[in-house]
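To the wet lab folks,

You asked to see what we're planning to order before we commit. Fair enough. Below is the target structure as tokens, and below that is the sequence we designed to fit it. If anything looks off to you, flag it before the synthesis order goes out.
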């Protein structure tokens, strides 16, 4: 009986998580190796363009050779983490860029999805924007605690 119960519970769990991961890597299209970690998101999104024509955030959000757009510096993982996690928007009162465990409540997500109540415009400025799969990964990183990993 005990074995049967374990089997019934564990099999759907395993199938479900494998199913999710396969779907995730399919969906992340122009960045197939994108992982829900700070270092991966920085390397593949913040500091790199991709084949969809999306520009690197650090083209504008850097202090290398310019003043960072909106004062937001995303030039490397350590700088981006310090600028984003638990940090307030300079332009929208009361908004926090990344609220660990709350992707919907994170202003970074709202700016990347172009929600109607943001101040300014959808990011990256002028598009192309992140794909649904790329957004899933960013959301998963925040939902699982926005670790500095
Ligand atoms: C071509 C330049 C450019 C690119 C590329 C760009 N941004 Fe921006 N970003 C801006 C400017 C200018 C602003 C200020 C105006 C606004 O908020 O719409 C801004 C504002 C922001 C804000 C809000 C800052 C605040 O204090 O409220 C966030 C968050 C942001 N950008 C994230 C990103 C991310 C993440 C990327 C890459 C996926 C990106 N941006 C790409 C120019 C850019």
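Sequence we intend to order:
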């Amino acid at each position: 009986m005990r074995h049967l119960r374990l089997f019934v519970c564990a099999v759907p769990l395993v199938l479900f998580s494998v199913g999710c991961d396969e779907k995730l890597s399919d969906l992340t299209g122009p960045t197939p190796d994108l992982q829900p970690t700070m270092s991966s998101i920085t390397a593949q999104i913040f500091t790199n363009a991709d084949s969809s024509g999306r520009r690197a955030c650090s083209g504008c959000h850097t202090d290398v050779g310019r003043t960072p757009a909106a004062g937001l510096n995303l030039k490397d993982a350590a700088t981006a983490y310090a600028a984003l996690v638990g940090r307030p928007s300079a332009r929208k009162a009361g908004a926090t860029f990344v609220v660990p465990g709350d992707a919907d409540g994170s202003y970074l997500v709202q700016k990347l999805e172009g929600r109607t109540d943001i101040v300014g415009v959808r990011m990256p400025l002028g598009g192309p924007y992140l794909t649904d799969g790329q957004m899933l990964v960013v959301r998963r990183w925040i939902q699982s605690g926005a670790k500095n990993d």
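Structural context that might help your review: Residues 2-27 form the longest helix (26 residues). Helices lie at 2-27, 38-46, 77-84, 107-113, 132-143.

Thanks,
Computational group
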